[in-house]
Automatic annotation (TrEMBL):
GO terms for molecular function: oxidoreductase activity. It holds the Pfam family adh_short_C2. Belongs to the short-chain dehydrogenases/reductases (SDR) family. This is Short-chain dehydrogenase. NCBIfam families: PRK07231.1 (NF005559). Keywords: Oxidoreductase. PANTHER family: OXIDOREDUCTASE, SHORT-CHAIN DEHYDROGENASE/REDUCTASE FAMILY (AFU_ORTHOLOGUE AFUA_5G02870), SHORT-CHAIN DEHYDROGENASE_REDUCTASE FAMILY PROTEIN. Gene3D superfamilies: NAD(P)-binding Rossmann-like Domain. It comes from Sphingomonas hengshuiensis.
Length: 248
């Protein structure tokens, strides 16, 4: 198993891409901390699925945009498991609205979770990685380089994730901490339910060489690779996992 014995925190893991990554980590031998903000039932269901498959997991609540919650999350993990080996920054929010309708609340809501939340988690993770170092995987988006109409703020947060990934890789490399990002393409999740229909779906499929919309299970293997020792010489990279799509 590629992650045997590793303690892995996956934020925003109660559904979608985060849940897919959590399940894949559990199958590879990691002890998975399934973080959630408000969906305890869904987080518990992810934990149950990991345990039913023979893995180990626990659900822990924390709002990753709040420093006190992030500190509590990591302190609990270390108290219970003694260390942290892997952090997947996945918790995020998207508010799509044209700039003429932009509100400060929507702007700060996205940057507080999608960017500040990632930094807060990294800050705490590096305190608890051991001498062997660790792996940080940031979930970015294809929209970081190909924004869509109405998604400029969300895309700006993901552009920030790409840049922080490279900057933190430089900063943390001397401590043997690798930092990489995954840029998913158009992926079916509860957050996108009902979005990929009609003419938009036709356009997405036409722009995706592999001919379909992605699933969480398509993203998870890359996260396993980046979390494992197989990627020991990879850091500071943002990797597209898109079925070949470059964006609309």
């Amino acid at each position: 198993m590629k992650l045997n014995g590793k303690i892995a925190i996956v934020t925003g893991a109660s559904s979608g891409i985060g849940a897919g990554i959590a399940r894949a980590f559990g199958a590879e031998g990691a002890v998975v901390i399934v973080n959630y903000m408000g969906s305890k039932d869904r987080a518990d269901a992810v934990v149950d699925s990991i345990v039913a498959a023979g893995g180990k997991a626990v659900a822990l609540q924390a709002d990753m945009s709040k420093s006190a919650d992030v500190v509590r999350l990591f302190d609990t993990v270390v108290a219970d498991h003694g260390k942290v080996d892997v952090l997947v920054n996945n918790a995020g929010v998207a508010v799509f609205e044209m700039v003429t309708e932009l509100t400060e609340d929507a702007f700060h809501k996205q940057f507080n979770l999608n960017v500040l939340g990632y930094f807060l988690a990294v800050r705490e993770a590096v305190k608890h990685f051991g001498e062997a170092g660790g792996s940080i995987v940031n979930i970015s988006s294809i929209l970081s380089t190909h924004p869509s109409a109405g998604g400029s703020v969300y895309s700006a947060t993901k552009g920030a994730v790409d840049n922080m990934t490279y900057g933190l890789a430089r900063e943390l490399g001397p401590r043997n901490i690798r930092v990489n990002a995954i840029m998913p393409g158009y992926t079916n999740t509860p957050a996108t339910d009902g979005a990929f229909v009609g003419d938009l779906r036709d356009r997405l499929l036409a722009e995706t060489p592999l001919g379909r919309v992605g699933e969480a299970e398509d993203i998870a293997p890359t996260a396993v690779f980046l979390a494992s020792d197989d990627s020991h010489w990879i850091s500071g990279e943002s990797i597209r996992v898109t079925g070949g799509a470059r964006g609309l």
